[in-house]
């Protein structure tokens, strides 16, 4: 019997809405064999998730999703990391400092547009988790500036929009090295969001491979069948490993189901053996 996995999930430690334990139980109830917890720029939920995974009988892979300096948008996922690695611990200070500056700039840009949302309000909404654009978007909905979170992103917060701040604390090379030095494997996430044409994307992924990138996300919720095949072929051409997941956020992205995306995604368990070889 085929078993399925989800190697791209988030909790309320970053911009999801489930606790790490809730996420694990939900994945188990959904019939998955394994998940990776890949919160943005934090490993705060990993210990709880791994512990709950042992309790309910679900394989939980420690991970992280790092945002990096890029011409467009680049996220690097780390899988099988050691959340207590010194390399990761050292990097977190720089990453969080950059994120704090970015949040201040996002608030400033929004206020220039007549949208009065403070960093303090975003921090309160995050309840101790990492503050990101999603918290500003939720506040925009609560205060009546936007009808939906998606509308807030589409009109103000997405890449290239008037309140978008692209400041990041580390380069792609640094992210890949941090993941490697933490015992993990690095993967370029959601390639379509890099917004590069095929030739430019291939050159960029080849550049990242030169820094030590292990693979790319070949399965993803928003990939069309044509995208999926194109990225799988790219991985074969460049001799890269394949990862995949839904980018599950629970209430933040309620249309995405853990393990199955929009309903038709199936990430095979066999990928895990390929990743570790």
Task: Describe what is shown at a glance.
The protein has 277 residues and is of the alpha/beta class. It is built from 10 helices and 8 strands.
The overall strand count is 8
Q: Could you name the CATH homologous superfamily of the domain at 4-83 and 183-276?
A: Metal-dependent hydrolases
Distance between the termini: 23 Å
Q: Name the overall outline.
A: globular
Overall CATH class of the domain at 4-83 and 183-276: Alpha Beta
Lateral arrangement of strands in the main beta sheet = 7-6-5-4-3-2-1-8
Question: Strand content of the residues, in percent?
Answer: 15-25%
What's the Cα radius of gyration?
A: 18 Å
| CATH-assigned fold name of the domain at 4-83 and 183-276 | TIM Barrel
Order of H and E elements = EHEHEEHHHHHEHEHEEH
Helix content: 40-55%
CATH architecture of the domain at 4-83 and 183-276: Alpha-Beta Barrel
User: Count of helices?
Assistant: 10
Briefly note the structural class of the backbone. alpha/beta
What do the pLDDT scores average to?
95
- Describe the biggest sheet? 8 strands, mixed
Q: pLDDT under 50 segments (min length 5)? A: none
What does this structure look like?
The chain has 277 residues and is an alpha/beta fold. The chain has a domain at 4-83 and 183-276: TIM Barrel. Helices cover 43% and strands 16% of the residues. Helix 1 (20-29) packs parallel to helix 2 (46-56) and helix 5 packs across helix 6 (149-157). The longest helix has 27 residues, at 86-112. The chain starts with a strand and ends with a helix.
């Amino acid at each position: 019997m085929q078993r399925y996995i989800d190697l791209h999930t988030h909790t309320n430690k970053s911009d999801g809405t489930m606790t790490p334990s809730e996420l694990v139980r939900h994945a188990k109830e959904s019939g998955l064999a394994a998940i990776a917890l890949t919160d943005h720029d934090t490993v705060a939920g990993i210990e709880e998730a791994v512990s709950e995974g042992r309790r309910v009988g679900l394989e939980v892979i420690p991970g992280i999703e790092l945002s990096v300096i890029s011409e467009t948008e680049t996220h690097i996922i780390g899988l099988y990391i050691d959340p207590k690695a010194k390399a990761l611990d050292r990097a977190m200070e720089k990453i969080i400092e950059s994120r704090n500056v970015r949040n201040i700039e996002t608030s400033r840009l929004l206020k220039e547009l007549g949208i009065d949302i403070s960093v303090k309000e975003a921090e309160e909404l995050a309840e101790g988790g990492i503050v990101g654009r999603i918290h500003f978007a939720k506040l925009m909905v609560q205060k009546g500036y936007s009808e939906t979170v998606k509308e807030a992103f589409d009109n103000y917060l997405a890449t290239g929009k008037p309140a978008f701040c692209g400041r990041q604390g580390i380069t792609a090379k640094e992210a890949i090295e941090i993941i490697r030095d933490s015992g993990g494997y690095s993967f370029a996430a959601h390639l379509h969001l890099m917004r590069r044409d095929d030739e430019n994307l291939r050159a960029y992924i080849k550049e990242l491979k030169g820094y030590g990138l292990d693979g790319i996300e070949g399965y993803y919720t928003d990939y069309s069948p044509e995208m999926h095949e194109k990225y799988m072929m790219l991985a074969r051409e460049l001799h890269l490993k394949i990862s995949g997941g839904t980018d599950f956020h629970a209430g933040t992205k309620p249309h995405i189901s853990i393990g199955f995306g929009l309903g038709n995604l199936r990430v095979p368990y066999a990928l895990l053996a390929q990743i570790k070889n």
